[in-house]
Every structure is written in structure tokens, then in C-alpha cells.
Amino acid sequence: MEKIKELEQENQRLKKRNELLSKIIQQLNSSLQLSVVMEYVIGEVTKTVKAITSTIYTLTENGKIEFSYIYGAKQEVKEKLQKIQLEPGQGIAGKVIKEGRPYISLDTQDDPNFYKGIDQEIGFKTRSLICVPLKVKSEIIGALQVINKESEDKKFNQGDVELLEEIANHAALAIKNAQLYEEVKNWREFNEAIIENINEAVFVVDRGLKVIVGNRSLEEMSGGLYTKEYLKGRNAREIFPYLNLEPVYREVFQSGRSFQQSGAGGRLLNFKFIPRKTKNGEVGEIIVLVNKTNLQSELE
């Protein structure tokens, strides 16, 4: 009977764990508004492992460790923590991020790896914690940490570690995707500003052959036909359709090399296709420069 009871309890535990993972994965896939999603995730994690508070750490550009998302703390404490940056390797979070392995401390006050400066700063006492790395493939982008177990024995266990590791795997991917999205968004906003101020007529095409942006010079050259509003999100095949530029786009995306082409019938409409490569060397977008000469007659 005792054995059956243990099996039932284990089945119940696994069922709750799977339900939690399913809810968290659904939330992570639902939005790129990372702050909302991460607060939900660490809130659910904290309640499930019966901790008091939790933190997601991420790395700054210079490798320092910052408190990105915090659950279970007052607003003034959150604001204090978010002004603090740990040095690489500092404290248990630094150790976990550096070594890429989970860490459980059942008595942090006597743990030589524990950095007490944070507790002193905010007037808190950390008794125990689990910290697991946030990994995307081999890259460590931060850590997930829960603090102070509230169960009867007040001790975290291996089951808690395993649950956190599994959640951290999904959370890390969501954070990385959101960071990449933000990079692309910032790059585009920055480059849109540059493109807008180029005298040359310019538009940019993505891998799906959609126009991302065009500038005012192109609008003026086309007699108001190719406005920025008209261009954004439009199929690139619809821009200068009589020239059939699609094979050129595909060749540039495939080869990664710049290409030049003149307009049909010997007219002086010149294009330069410049590939913009991503960090992994793949062509992400093509910047198309158009020579102004005789554009109006081409459109007519």
C-alpha cells in the first residue's frame, strides 16, 4: 500500500509539472513582449517550487550580470536591484553563468560562493537558493534563480533543480529570440534614419521578398508613386515590375555578392543590389540603390 501511495504521489507531481511546463511554453510562444511573459514565468516557477522570490539574470554587452526580471519583491527593492550589476563570475549567479552548471545551496550564509553584498544592500536574508543557467545551444545568456524555500523542511531538492532546468531551457530561447528581435528592430530604425537621409533613391528587401523600407528620394523620383507607406510590406515584385528583378534578388540572396543592372531597352535606369549579411554570414536583406536618371520616363 505504501508503495502504491508513493507512485500515486509521484504521478501527481509529474502531472502538475507537465501542466506547468505546458502553460509556460504556451506563454513563451505567445508574445515578444518579454517583460510580461518573463514575469509570468518566474511567478509560476516561484509558486510551484514554494520559493519566496526569484530572479532572471542576463548579460550586458560588456559581460556584466544584471537583474532583468524579479518576482516577489517590492517595487523599491526591484528598482534598487535593477541598478546593480555583478562582475563576471561574482556570486553564485556569476559562477553558474561562467561554468554553465546548476547550483543548489541549502545554507547560503555559510556558502563561500554566495555574495552577501546584495542582501546587505536591500535588507534581505537569503537562506537557500537554486540557480540554473539560461542556455541556447552552447551559449549561456544568463541564469534563473529561486530563493528561500517555504515548504515544511525549507529545503530545495533535486526535483526543484530539474524543473528549473527544463523551464530555463525554454525561457532562454524566448529571451534570445526577443533580444534578436530587438536587435533587428533597432538596426532597422537606425538604418531607416540613415536611408531617409541618403540622396540616392533606396529601398530594402527582406528574404521573403517584402519591402522593409524606402526613402523620400525614391518617392520623389517616382513622382509620388513609391511612397514610404506604399512600399512598406509590399511584395518586391511590384516595384519596377516591368524589369522582372526577382531573379536578381534571388541571385544576390544565394550568392551573397553585390550586383548591378541597368533598365530595359537601353534606358539609363541603373540599380545596385547590396547584400546585408547577418552575424552567421547569411544574407538577411538587400539594399537596392536606384540611379535617378530618366526614372520618370521609365515610369511613363
Write up this protein.
The chain is α+β, with helices and mostly antiparallel strands. The protein has two domains: 183 residues, Beta-Lactamase (2-Layer Sandwich), CATH 3.30.450.40; 102 residues, PAS domain (Beta-Lactamase). Helices cover 43% and strands 23% of the residues. The strands form two sheets. It has a six-stranded antiparallel sheet, with helices on both faces. A five-stranded antiparallel sheet has the order 8-7-11-10-9, with helices on both faces. Helix 1 runs parallel beside helix 6 and helix 2 packs antiparallel against helix 6. The longest helix is centred in the middle third of the chain and has 39 residues. The chain is elongated.
Structural descriptors:
43% helix; 11 strands; alpha+beta; disordered C terminus; 300 residues; Beta-Lactamase; 2 domains; five-stranded antiparallel β-sheet; single chain
